Amino acid sequence: MRNKLRIIPVVFLLLIIVLSGCSMKSEEEALTDAKQNALEAFNNKEKIETNHELNSFELYLPENLEVKEESKSNVILEDGDQTYIVFYNNLEKPTSQLSYESAKKEEALLMESFKDNNKFGYIRILSDKGDGYEMQVGIGGVKITTYTSKGKMDNDARALMEISRSIAATSEVAQK
Length: 176
Hints:
Keywords: Coiled coil. By secondary structure, the chain is α+β, with helices and mostly antiparallel strands. It has one domain (25-175): Protein Transport Mog1p, Chain A (3-Layer(aba) Sandwich). It has helices spanning 2-23, 27-43, 98-103, 153-175; strands at 52-53, 58-59, 66-70, 74-79, 82-88, 110-115, 120-127, 133-139, 142-148. Helix 2 (27-43) runs parallel beside helix 4 (153-175). The protein is globular.
């Protein structure tokens, strides 16, 4: 009886490991979800209100991100140990494809572009030769790059596209 009681926690632990392994996304699923989230954020018609003013421009900043450094065209954001680099070229219109053309020169796991009448955007995901991924999302003269994991890829894609949209929208207003 005592040996049977010792086996129960071991079996339970193995069951948890097996079930959690089954629920993990494959790389292909993670890339598909990231692409879908970026597309949804790109196509969202609701205006994204900026909530953070920098020296050179305004942007929407999710609650979990904070500004660590800022220059005229670059901003370094952080969420714990994850860093996001925002580059903004205010001379490029939201419909510019310059960053996209530069980004597509590298072999990517995912390279997808999105377009409407007012803006041109993209998402690029590269393997970082480890367990992680380099993600770059942009609209016009805005591009944001971070290193992410398979588990965070979909949320990061949405957040980066929302931030990009907020900057592009303010630049669109300024250029009119």
